[in-house]
Amino acid sequence: MSAPPLPPPPRPAPTARERLIVALDVPDRRAAEAMVERLGPTVGFYKVGLELAYGGGLPLVEELASRGKRVFLDLKLHDIPNTVERAAAQVARLGATFLTVHAYPQTMRAALAGRGAGGLRLLAVTVMTSYNDADLADAGFPAGVRATVAARAAYAARLGIDGLVLSAEETAAVRSELGPRLLMVTPGIRPAGADLADQKRAVTPAAAMRAGADYIVVGRPITAAADPAAAAEAIVQDIAAGLAPSALG
Prior knowledge:
- The chain is an alpha/beta fold.
- The protein contains eleven helices and eight strands.
């Protein structure tokens, strides 16, 4: 009997700069390209969400990947299994690094089947960071945010999903329960003193790192700044502060 295959070597920890994902929440490809140009080498990881995807931004995924940038395609897939499987297969061909799906069992299984053996990593969205307990109750989930996130995260881990999208308010508890394997990607990040806008469970970059996040997603605090590159650099420095041994305890 042959020996079982060795487990893959552990992934090197990303640097503070590599942990920042800038959300290109702009209406079209031209605006996205202009923002990427303004940010230059300060940022190497971008999120393309629904607005830009529907505004002609999907070809930008391939372009950015060809330039050595990484792309988080935030489509939050959720449909019948056949549709999700085929959509995940299409995304895998674009060269994206991350793809989001909603954390429902059928959806996650289908996306895993469709993404193939390439480098696409699947992130399950547990509970949107614009939701609080009252919003979940209105939608028919009376257990509340923390319990719902914990249940969905555990199921995603059992299925073999690569990572989770969740608020930093839940990251520490989920990390403690499920261990280090899953990537934790935290949206709803706001620098200290920034306007929360439509986010109800927002934290600072440093606080997200201390909670155990691997990556953070930042949009308007960078893209709406007078100097986006300077705003991004300040957030990178805040990430580094949150990763410092003294900050992590």
